[in-house]
Design brief:
single chain; 7-stranded mixed β-sheet; 6 helices; 28% helix; 5-stranded antiparallel β-sheet; alpha+beta
Length: 248
């Protein structure tokens, strides 16, 4: 069971994570916190945590698989009142997760654009961001103490426990992530871009992405001044993409 007291004792934020709703089981934490917001039961900075998310969602309608009592599955909501938040948020949440994992475990993961958490080309976690009613809902799914995965994802997925061969305390790890997240919110877009690129695991490598339903390959050059991905196609053309999924 996720211990709220252990989470709160490691939290050093001013605004985020102090009002917590814990649910033993739920369909989706993103769906739940938005329902609470619409019913005036949640406001900016509030967080929902569950030990068993049975209908988790990823980007582009994908499902997110999680194992009861093993992973971090949580969502929090923030108001859109920070400078350039629409551009910074998809980048800084990944940075916060990387920093939180490193603080908790000393493991250095890397980022796959825009905010997939990777370790040696295997996915440890992902993020789902939804903008609703001038607020952002940020959902995190992180593989922490799993030792096996469904056959369909077992070759491309990793957990922190499989890396270290020991159980990881989920509560302090999530608190560290939220702490870093709040600090990064006040950073400039330029500094966020520089930080993101320092954690990118595929800079100047070939990636694949969908353009007009066609799969195109190109060299990932990093981010432009708006935080979009710059990809060099063929010999010359540089295309900037602001959303979607890339493949390595």
């Amino acid at each position: 069971m996720f211990l709220i007291s252990a989470f709160s004792s490691n939290l050093s934020t001013n605004k985020i994570g102090h009002n917590i709703k814990y649910l033993e089981s739920i369909d989706s934490t993103n769906t739940e916190i938005y329902r609470m917001f619409k019913n005036n039961e949640a406001q900016s900075g509030d967080i929902v945590i569950t030990d068993n998310q049975n209908s988790g969602r990823g980007r582009r309608g994908d499902s997110w698989y999680s194992q009861p009592n093993k992973s971090i599955t949580t969502s929090f909501i923030i108001k859109n009142n920070y400078n350039n938040l629409d551009k910074k948020l998809p980048l800084l949440i990944g940075i916060a997760i990387i920093k939180g994992i490193q603080q908790s475990t000393k493991i250095l993961c890397d980022l796959k654009w825009p905010n997939d958490i990777m370790y040696q080309s295997k996915k440890i976690g992902g993020v789902l961001i939804e903008k609703k009613d001038n607020h952002y809902i940020i959902g995190l799914g992180l593989n922490i103490n799993e030792t096996k995965f469904e056959k369909s994802i077992q070759d491309s997925t990793m957990s922190l426990k499989l890396i270290l061969n020991r159980t990881i305390e989920r509560e302090s790890l999530l608190a560290y992530i939220i702490n870093h997240f709040e600090i990064l919110l006040d950073k400039s877009l330029d500094s966020i871009i520089n930080l993101w690129e320092s954690f990118c695991g595929h800079l100047n490598q070939t990636v694949y992405f969908h353009d007009s339903k066609k799969l195109i390959d190109g060299k990932f050059l990093g981010l432009n001044k708006n935080g979009e991905a710059n990809i060099k196609i063929g010999g010359q053309e540089i295309k900037s993409i602001h959303s979607g999924v890339i493949k390595l």
